[in-house]
């Protein structure tokens, strides 16, 4: 089961290597792909019972965690871009 979980995440991470897609399209595809890959595996692993209440709770936690991590990563990327732009400006001066 752990191998399948690793494969699901490896495949979904590959989506970020499609250079013709925008970062928004890559992020949405990654979120959906990893959700659709992990949900059945989580059920098979017995991580939550198969009922609507737990499925909704899992979906809420997954979505919240994904959005939270995405916001952190975007903030870090913005800081890095600002730093690189400052280095380029200083180098040109």
Overview of the molecule:
The protein has 93 residues and is mostly helical. The protein has 3 helices and no strands. The radius of gyration is 18 Å and the shape is elongated.
Notable characteristics:
83% helix, elongated, 93 residues
Q: How can the largest sheet be summarized?
A: none
Bin the strand percentage.
Answer: under 5%
- The ordered string of helix (H) and strand (E) elements is HHH
User: Rg from C-alpha positions?
Assistant: 18 Å
* Distance from first to last alpha carbon: 56 Å
Mean pLDDT: 91
Helix content: over 70%
The secondary-structure class comes to mainly alpha
How many beta-strand runs? 0
Number of continuous helical runs: 3
Outline: elongated
What low-confidence regions span 5 or more consecutive residues with pLDDT below 50? none
Q: How is this fold's topology laid out?
A:
Blueprint: H1 2-14, H2 23-45, H3 52-92
Quick summary:
The protein is built from three helices and no strands. The protein has 93 residues and is mostly helical.
């Amino acid at each position: 089961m752990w191998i399948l979980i690793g494969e699901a995440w490896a495949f979904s991470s590959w989506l970020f290597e499609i250079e013709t897609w925008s970062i928004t399209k890559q992020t949405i595809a990654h979120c959906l792909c990893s959700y659709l890959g992990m949900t059945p595996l989580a059920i098979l692993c017995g991580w939550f019972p198969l009922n609507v209440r737990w499925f909704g709770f899992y979906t809420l936690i997954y979505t919240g965690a994904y959005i939270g991590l995405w916001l952190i990563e975007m903030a870090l990327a913005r800081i890095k871009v600002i730093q690189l732009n400052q280095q380029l400006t200083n180098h040109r001066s």
